[in-house]
Amino acid sequence: MRLIAAKFVKPFVKSNKNDFVDAEAIAEAVERKNMRFVPIKTDDQLDLQAIHRVRDRLISRRTAVINQLRAFLLERGMVFATTPAKLKAAMADVLKNADADLTPQMRNLIGMLWDEWRLVEEQIEELTTQLERISDGDAGCPRIRKIPGIGPVIATAIVAAIGNGAAFRKGREFAAWLGIVPRKHSTGGKAKLLGISKRGNVYLRKILIHGARAAVLRIKRDRAPIGAWLDALASRAPKNVVVVAMANKLARIAWAVLSSGNKYRPVTT
Fold first, then answer.
1. What is the pLDDT along the chain (269 residues), one digit of tens a residue?
2. I need a labelling partner for 29 at 20 to 30 A (CA). Which of 62, 172, 210, 264 fits?
């Protein structure tokens, strides 16, 4: 069995949509020599992907709870710093302080939101612990975790998405699939590079860019060999461009490590 992305079949649909026309379009698309197929994931990859999806949803839910909690307190004249840690440290005083300008009904609602916040955080920590345990037992995760900016969460997300990387011929194809390469607009023999394409796996691109942002700070501090390239890029490009370029490089390195089966060897010269 082979899977094809729906957007690659759509150009072969000749008329109005129906089952016969769709089947004909699929049959025509599958015979194309340059057609791109979606690799079929194993059960372990699907389990890993499910853990990441649930964890990402819980993180979004935690953010929503914090924002709602902060908004309710702001309406009563109680302002806190933007960091969640500051609000969390003040929650005990908010609920116990009888002098606070909170009605009994609002105090109960704040208490419910506070309980929900703690419950969601416990669930996130539990799933993160599962990812760390799976990462330690996987064959590929420990190797790509040696790459700066890639931890257990990013490593398991990469393995869940591409396995050993056999679906891509080179690292640039993987980076393009993640949407962290420039969009290209070419006409009349003139090519123009635009912003990143933002295609492919949105979740993996997001966490990889977060990891790249941490790697940029770490590499500058530790004087890593890649720091010369990073300094040269930072001297002529904005900060966000540097971070995305670093994410591109991390994706290519991760693909090379997974596809070759070798360990990560940082450049020493």
1. 788 888 889 989 988 888 999 999 999 999 888 888 878 888 889 999 999 999 999 999 999 999 999 999 998 888 888 889 999 998 988 888 766 678 888 889 999 999 999 999 999 999 999 999 999 988 889 999 998 889 999 999 999 998 888 888 888 989 988 999 888 888 888 888 788 888 888 999 999 999 999 888 877 655 666 777 888 888 888 889 999 999 999 999 999 999 988 888 876 54
2. 172
In a domain, 179, yes or no: yes
Is residue 164 domain-resident? Answer: yes
CA distance 269 to 263: 18
Q: How far is residue 128's CA from residue 122's CA, in Å, rounded to a whole number?
A: 10
Tokens of residue 153, six digits:
């969460």
The pTM of this model reads 0.84
* Beta-carbon contacts of residue 117 (< 8 Å; ≥ 6 apart): 62, 65, 66, 69, 88
Looking at the structure, tell me whether residues 123 and 51 fall in a common domain: yes
For 187, the 3-state DSSP assignment is strand
Q: State the angle between helix axes of 227-234 and 202-222 in degrees (0 to 180), rounded to the nearest 10.
A: 100
Containing structural domain, residue 1: 1-38
Residue linked to tokens 């990013």: 154
Do residues 108 and 172 share a domain? no
Structure token digits, residue 49: 């992907």
**Alpha-carbon Rg for the chain in angstroms:** 24
Same domain, 145 and 129: no
Question: Which of 137, 162, 194 lies at the terminal end of a domain, its last residue?
Answer: 137
What total number of domains does the chain contain?
A: 3
